Structure formats: structure tokens, C-alpha cells
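Incident review: delayed structure delivery

Summary: a single-chain prediction request sat in the queue longer than the usual turnaround. Root cause was a stuck worker, restarted by the on-call engineer. No data loss occurred. The affected request and its eventual output are reproduced below so the record is complete for anyone auditing the incident later.

Affected input:
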Amino acid sequence: MRHKKRLLTPGPTPLPEEVRLTLAMDMIHHRKPGFKAVLSEIQEGLKDLFGTSQPVIPLASSGTGAMCAAVTNLFRPKEQVLIIEGGKFGERWGEIASFNHLDTVVVTVPWGKAVSRKHVEKAFAQYPDIKGVFVQASETSTGVLHPVRELAELTRDKDVMLVVDGISAVGVSPCPMDEWGLDALLTGSQKGLMLPPGLSFIALSERAWDRVAKVKPKDFYFNLAGEKAKIRDNQTLFTPAINLLMGLHTSLVILRERGLEEIYRKQWALTQLVRTGVRRLGLELLAKEHYTWGLTSVRLPAGVDGQRVLAAAAQEYGVVMAGGQGRLKGRIVRIGHMGHVDFGDLLAGLYALERALCACGGHSGARDFLEQGMRAYESALAEYKGGMSHV
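Output delivered after worker restart:
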């Protein structure tokens, strides 16, 4: 039997019909008044999404491109920076920084755990020359939510830039840049923004822009000062990904109509649905305390091959989920629940996971896992007190 395909990965995520229709429209020219008007509206929507009064720079790249731009525009070779390494993308911060000849200090936390304020305070005391901290708001490889608001309390009064990868957090859980005091916040198009991959976005604080002016650009393409000068005129420094930006315009309209607080409420409730259902199945959650709202990482029972579970869920039930990365490859399943996903998709995902586990030699827990998941979803919707109270 052929089933409806359900994409429950932590990026790319499903596309709303309105976005797909926009992406199918004919091409327009990026230096003409029509596109400039669209880019102006996009800029206002991105500022609201990021929670900043500063410009948000779109780049024709994956999220890693924005990570590279942050490193090369904010720091000089040999400057010392602190890397929070608690997953695959924390490691990527370290790789990018080392590639660009920065002196890296690494705070390593177990995969599935969040960094603590004390970890960073200790590093600052031991290494007084640190000029930047690189961290994930949401570590996509593990499903951990790092306490970036607390880290900002440590950096905002120092000559230290807090650079936050919000690729699986922006548009998924609260991350108001100006209010929290983040110096750089970046994301990608294929997560909470409900677009195909190919765009990244980065916003800098006022003091971060001052630092960019002093550091000077070291990359011809990822030149944030040049992009900032162009965005004032509703233009980009180089040819942009025009169709993706048109799709972004539609996506931002959808987000504005729904309202960020309502989006966060839905995301919180979907997270409770999945986590409750997983526990009722007798499975262990990787991130037990500080967990992201966009995905849930599930430990697999000993002896169960994660690749076989994913293949069975996709082939038999049409549900596409993701596996582990790096040292977690084959050991976890990551269920994505960000963007254009609802409770029906996730109930189907939990059922497919349970059936696939049984087919691959795993066990099945309580039979009411779907009902309990749905009750948790409804309770979370009713009891939601606002995004800040849950972060």
C-alpha cells in the first residue's frame, strides 16, 4: 500500500502550499523596483522574527555559510574564542574557527546535555583573552537547547561577542536577539521558515557591527559590511536566490498572520506530544531536561539498527525521519516537528516508529502511546504561559 509521504526530519521540512505556489512563479529581475519592494517587506519580517532593530542579512548559502560569515567578519586570525561543543554542529563551530586560524578553547559537554553558565564562567576565568563565544541555541544533532539567554548575561558587559547558531531555533522557539543581548544570530531557510535549503540569514548587534568595521572583511563573497550597505537600498551585494526570497516573502506573511507567540505555543505542544508518546513506548529520550522545540532525539534499544528502523518507517508507512550524526549514528532516531507540521503528522510518525521498532527486533511499550501523546498536546496548548516561561 502506498501512503502519503510525511517528512519528519529536522530539516528540510515540509513546504506550505502557498510557498510552493510562490516558488513556481516566473522569474523576476533582482535590480528592478518590484524586487526591491519585496526585499523591503522581507527585511521588516525578518527583523520581527529575529527580534532585532538591526538589519538581517540574507545570504545565498546553507546555514554553514552564515556560520563562516560570522567567523570571518567578527574575528581576526589568532584571536581566542570559546567553542561550546555538545554535538555535531558545536564541532562545526570549532572546525570553522580553526580553519580560519582562530585560537580555540573548547568546552565539551556530553551529547544530550546543555552547557551550563558555570562552564563558561570557568573558561572566562581561565582564559581572560577570549573574544567570542560560539554556541548553538538548538543543537540539531542532539535536540538540546543551550541556555543562550544566560550566556548573554555573561558576555554583554565584556568585550566578548556571543555568536548563536539558531538554525533549528529561529521561528521554532523564542530567541529574541535584542532583548536577550545576543551579538550574532543566524539561521537557515529549511527549518522553521518552511522553505527549501539554499538561504541563510545573519543579524548582528550594534556592537558587533562596530567590530565588523574594525576587523575588515576577509572574504570577497561573505562581506557583511558590503551586504549591510546594499540592504539599506533594498538590494543584495551579489545576485540573490531570487525564487527562494520570493518564497520567503510568502512564508513571512504566513508567520505574521499566525503570530510568533501562537507559533511557539504550537511548537511547545507538539514537543510535548512527541516526548510523551516516546516515553509511553518505553523508549529513552536523549535530551532529558534542556530540549529543543523543533525535534526530539530518541535512543534506540540495544541491538536495534537505527538505519533499519528508518528504512522500515519510510518504506512501510511513508514517514521519513532522521538518524543520528557522528558518534550517535545508528543509535538514535530524530523526529522533526518544526515548521509546516501538525499533530496528525506526528501521530502518524509515532505509530510508524513503533511498528518499525517491532519489525526490527525492538519492543513495544504501552498501547495507549498515541492517546497519551494527544492528551499531552492538548494540555500543553491549554497551559502554555508564553514562550519566555518555557525557555
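Verification: Residues 10 and 342 are 14 Å apart (CA to CA).
Action items: add queue-age alerting; document worker restart procedure.
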